[in-house]
């Protein structure tokens, strides 16, 4: 991938991105999905809006329903969400558009316990700490509880199973398949 052009650098600065971090390393990932801005993209049609608790980070989704939605009971999700499990909806990285708060995003890579953007990583609001999504190499796991659903839309995000149910802290009797691991 070629380095960003001057207009891209100017746009990144206006969106709160800087192409070099404090160590002088290049951060071209800031110009690619899911962080690139779709302002001038006529093909991006926002269907849902979401935000963190404080409202500093705001985003849109363009896909009508997630590729899949699941409840995760892994110990990392339990600790980082402060809950017995988390609800995640899987999307392509191109399906999200951050409309506000690029500079208010924070990252956490749980295996190395670093706050640098290193995949896979957890993405949250750096101010209120609301978890926004998990970013993988090809997909994102977005947390539907941050979306502003209209009547009847939430059902499109209904989970299809429980992952890592062997680590559960509470029994859930909802009739959904329960996987002991990832699948």
From TrEMBL:
The keyword Lyase applies. InterPro entries: CENP-V/GFA, Mss4-like_sf. Residues 48-180 form the CENP-V/GFA domain. PROSITE patterns: CENP_V_GFA. It holds the Pfam family GFA. Keywords: Lyase, Metal-binding, Zinc. Signal peptide: none annotated. GO terms for molecular function: carbon-sulfur lyase activity; metal ion binding. Transmembrane segments: none annotated. Residues 1-26 are annotated as: Disordered. Residues 7-26 have a biased composition (Basic and acidic residues). Belongs to the Gfa family. PANTHER family: CENP-V_GFA DOMAIN-CONTAINING PROTEIN-RELATED, GFA DOMAIN-CONTAINING PROTEIN. This is CENP-V/GFA domain-containing protein. It comes from Lachnellula cervina. The lineage of its organism: Eukaryota, Fungi, Dikarya, Ascomycota, Pezizomycotina.
